[in-house]
Every structure is written in structure tokens, then in C-alpha cells.
Design brief:
- The protein has 484 residues and is mainly β.
- It has 2 domains: 62 residues; 386 residues, Porin, CATH 2.40.160.10.
- The protein has a 16-stranded antiparallel β-barrel with strand order 2-3-4-6-7-8-9-10-11-12-13-14-15-16-17-18.
- The longest helix has 51 residues.
- The chain is globular, with a radius of gyration of 32 Å.
- The N and C termini lie far apart (87 Å).
- 28% of the residues are buried.
Length: 484
């Protein structure tokens, strides 16, 4: 009896072991099959990455180690990725990264007439198209090109007016530079580019202006040092004739006409407070050489001696932005003998307000002084912005107030919307409201209220195009901005 029970128990245990052995073999077979599938997927992913990067196809691939063991865990439900980190890589063709944006604008500028000033009523439709191309020539060298619309004699806007009959509007090179960055903390750039301290704040520079020259950036921890060297006018005249338009800018007949240049250097310091709030300090100085030649580019006869030889065509008129004070109403000799502009900036940013990431906050204040003169040399601007326009239905509101005296900065380079027609010698209130119709499509509304600061004073050889008695200038811009 005992023997019979022992035999039965042995048979039962053996059958159980055979069943477990069979299940183990099946599990091992499934794991090996999954390993082969994973290997095939890895090879296919590698081919796709090489195709996107524009690399030649590889016929032989190194075999990935097969998975010989698997750990089964309970799957967790997928978590939604925050909108802020959902980025889409720009399209590429043979390693060239492409991008573009289009802006369609209604632009209205209105001012009443007075005894000393003509009225202004300029209502127009405008558009801007920019096409960007970026390419890496190596891990430490990249290039960028930008083609854009705009009038060739206006360097502070890229807009084209609905005018000129049915003739085609031109398309020009706006940016073309090479950037050498041997490490993430050092950048050396040369070509046609944004100014090294450009911040799209409507203070020092217009956001559409581009500079020819070089700039350098070097970052050490939270401190970044910047420097720029830019070239504006190169007359290339060894002996200036008495009849030359260069004499309107103060060049003495019989002397060499020196080039107009600008040198800009300074430092940016990041000062984060916590994971929501951060601040930034900026201090910089930019110095001009022969700035009156820049003013000469706005003179009807001076443009022939400054701009036309450089671009090889004859322009229909001078550059806009004639707000700086000159020593005479008929010349372009600036009232401020030197332009040595020192600037300080404080900026405060919050990633969210009240826990709402759709309501970021940004506030900044900027002050500048032209140390090359003693009168009407200061500028100040404060701007606050709340909200964003990344996704459908999001809104952004902005208010800015600024003062730019007649000798504070070069009017041909500063913002042409904040300073309609003159650039400086003004005080302006700026209101803005943006609404995102969908991702990448934003309806923007901008309003400017501009008043002039000082009138001409012949006793001090101080002449400005618009005086203090000029009526208020209103400007409205309603525009559809599309990026793709």
C-alpha cells in the first residue's frame, strides 16, 4: 500500500515538472522572438535617423545583442507631456534646416496738422515674408541665411506695402553669417546678423535691423561677456572734393573720409531666484566712430555717396529715421559731437502666475545715456508683459512706456514703430494685445501714442524735424502672424 502511494506521488510530481519544463521552454522561445523583433526595430530606427540627417545609407549594420531575459512589469498609464516641452523639429533637406514666417498687417498712422507741422494720414496694407535656412558644417561650425521682403532703402523694416501697381516686390538677403562655437560657452560670429545685444524690446534697435560685422560671446557660469564690431559706411575716398556730399556730414574737403563704425561691449548676469522666478542684469556701452555719416544715409544727395556704391544700385531715396538733432537744417552733422551710449537693464521673469503656466510674466526697465554730450542725452523704457500665445485660445497683453531724447541714440537704427517717422526726440505709450487663433497663428493688435520732446533752437545749433508743438501721433497695427 505504501509502495503504491509512493509510485503515484512520484508520477504526479514528474508530470508537474514536465509541465513546468514545457512552460519554461515556451517562455524562453517567446523571449527570443521578442529579442529578434526588437533588433529589427532598432535597425529600422537607425535607417530612419540616417535618412533624416541626410547621411548615406549603410548596407551593413552592427548586430545588437539579443534580449535573452525579460522582466515583466505592470504597465503604467501614459502621462500627458506638458505643452512647454512639446517641440517639433524643423523640416530638413540634406541637412539644411528650413523655417519661415509670414505677417499680414494693416498699418494706420494719423496726426493732425499744426502751424509748424504737416498732418499725417497714412493707412496701408503691408506684408512681410522671411525664409530661414540653417546648416551645420560640423559640430563646432554652423551657417545661417535669411531671405526677406522689404524696400532696399529702408533697413529698419522688412515690410512691403500694397503699392507699386502690379510690379513684383523684391526679395533680399537679410542675414548671412557663420558661427564658430568650439564649446557651448563660446561663440564667434561673422557676417550679416542681429546685433549682439538685440532683445526685440523696441529700445536700442529695431527688431528688423541687421548689422554687418562680427560679434563674440563667452559665458562663465551665470555671467556672459559680449562684444560686437560693426561697419556702416565706408566712403573709400582718400581726398574729399569740395563738392562731395560727404561734406554735409562734416568731412573736411581735401581730407580722407573715414569709415563709420560701432563697437559694443558689455556683460549679462543671470540671477535665478527659484524654479519660477528669475532675474537678469545687463550693462553695456556702445561707441560710434563718425556717426554723422550714418545720418548722411538719410540725405537725398548723401545716399549716393554712402549706400549706392556699396550695393551697386541707385536708390530712389535715403534711409528713414531722421530724428536726431543736427547743427543745421540743411546738413547731417549731429548736434551731439560723439555717441558713446551706456545702458543698464534689469529684467524679471516668472514662468507662471498663480500656478498657471499659461500666464508667464516679464517686466523690464532700461536706461541709457549718451556720454558724448551734455544735453538731451537720456533714454528710458519700462515694459510689462503677461501671458503667452503658444496654443489655441491663449492671450498676451503688454504695456510699454519710453522716452528717447534727441541726442540719446542713433535714430536710423532704433525702432520705427515706437518712434514713427523720427525714432528719437519722443515719448511713447505702447499697448499690445495678442490672441492665438491656433498653434502658430496669432492675431496681434498694437497701438502707439507718440509725442515729441523738444523743438529746434537755432541759438544752440539744435534742429529737429518735429518740434514740441507737433500734435499727437497715433499708430495702430492689426496683423496676422503665421510661423511655420
Amino acid at each position: 500500500m505504501k509502495f503504491t502511494m509512493a509510485v503515484a506521488l512520484t508520477i504526479l510530481l514528474a508530470g508537474s515538472g514536465w509541465a513546468q519544463s514545457n512552460e519554461t521552454a515556451q517562455l524562453k522561445q517567446k523571449v527570443e522572438e521578442q529579442g529578434r523583433q526588437i533588433e529589427a526595430l532598432q535597425q529600422q530606427l537607425a535607417r530612419i535617423e540616417r535618412a533624416l540627417a541626410g547621411e548615406p545609407a549603410v548596407t551593413e549594420t552592427t548586430a545588437q545583442p539579443r534580449v535573452t531575459a525579460a522582466v515583466f512589469v505592470q504597465p503604467t498609464p501614459p502621462r500627458a507631456t506638458p505643452v512647454a516641452v512639446q517641440t517639433q523639429a524643423p523640416p530638413q533637406i540634406a541637412g539644411f534646416r528650413l523655417g519661415a514666417d509670414f505677417r499680414f498687417r494693416y498699418d494706420a498712422s494719423i496726426r493732425s496738422a499744426s502751424e509748424t507741422t504737416t498732418g499725417l494720414q497714412n493707412m496701408r496694407q503691408r506684408y512681410r515674408l522671411r525664409f530661414n535656412v540653417d546648416r551645420d558644417a560640423g559640430t563646432d561650425l554652423s551657417m545661417r541665411f535669411q531671405l526677406t521682403t522689404g524696400a532696399v532703402n529702408n533697413g529698419i523694416t522688412l515690410d512691403s506695402d500694397f503699392a507699386g501697381g502690379v510690379t513684383r516686390h523684391p526679395f533680399f538677403i537679410s542675414e548671412a553669417y557663420v558661427d564658430y562655437h568650439p564649446n557651448p560657452n563660446l561663440s564667434l560670429r561673422g557676417g550679416r546678423q542681429e546685433e549682439v545685444f538685440a532683445d526685440n524690446s523696441r529700445f536700442l534697435w529695431d527688431d528688423d535691423v541687421r548689422f554687418n560685422g562680427f560679434h563674440e560671446k563667452w559665458k562663465k557660469g551665470r555671467v556672459e561677456f559680449r562684444a560686437g564690431q560693426y561697419f556702416f559706411v565706408n566712403p573709400n575716398v582718400f581726398t574729399t572734393p569740395a563738392s562731395s556730399p560727404l561734406t554735409l556730414a562734416g568731412v573736411t574737403p581735401g581730407t580722407i573720409a573715414r569709415a563709420a563704425q560701432m563697437f559694443h561691449q558689455g556683460v549679462v548676469v543671470e540671477a535665478p531666484m527659484n524654479n519660477v522666478w528669475k532675474s537678469q542684469f545687463t550693462g553695456d556701452v556702445h561707441v560710434y566712430r563718425n556717426p554723422s555719416l550714418i545720418a548722411l544715409t538719410s540725405n537725398a544727395s548723401g545716399v549716393g555717396a554712402t549706400v549706392n556704391p556699396a550695393i551697386g544700385v541707385m536708390l530712389s531715396g535715403g534711409a528713414p529715421g531722421t530724428g536726431n538733432a543736427t547743427t543745421s537744417p540743411t546738413n547731417t552733422i549731429l548736434n551731439a559731437r560723439y555717441y558713446q551710449v551706456a545702458r543698464g537693464v534689469y529684467r524679471l521673469d516668472a514662468a507662471e502666475l498663480g500656478g498657471n503656466v499659461k500666464l508667464p510674466l516679464s517686466w523690464s526697465v532700461q536706461v541709457a545715456r549718451n556720454m558724448g554730450t551734455s544735453t538731451l542725452r537720456d533714454a528710458i523704457m519700462s515694459t510689462i508683459s503677461v501671458g503667452r500665445t503658444r496654443e489655441t485660445g491663449e492671450i498676451r497683453a503688454l504695456y510699454s512706456f519710453g522716452i528717447k531724447d534727441a541726442n540719446s541714440m542713433i535714430s536710423q537704427l532704433t525702432d520705427d514703430d515706437f518712434g514713427t517717422g523720427i525714432g528719437v526726440n519722443l515719448a511713447t505709450h505702447h499697448f499690445r494685445f495678442d490672441y492665438a487663433l491656433r498653434k502658430g497663428v496669432v492675431f496681434q493688435n498694437l497701438v502707439f501714442r507718440q509725442t515729441e520732446r523738444r523743438s529746434s533752437n537755432p541759438a544752440q545749433s539744435f534742429f529737429v524735424p518735429l518740434g514740441r508743438d507737433t500734435p499727437v501721433t497715433w499708430r495702430y497695427q492689426g496683423q496676422l502672424a503665421i510661423s511655420f
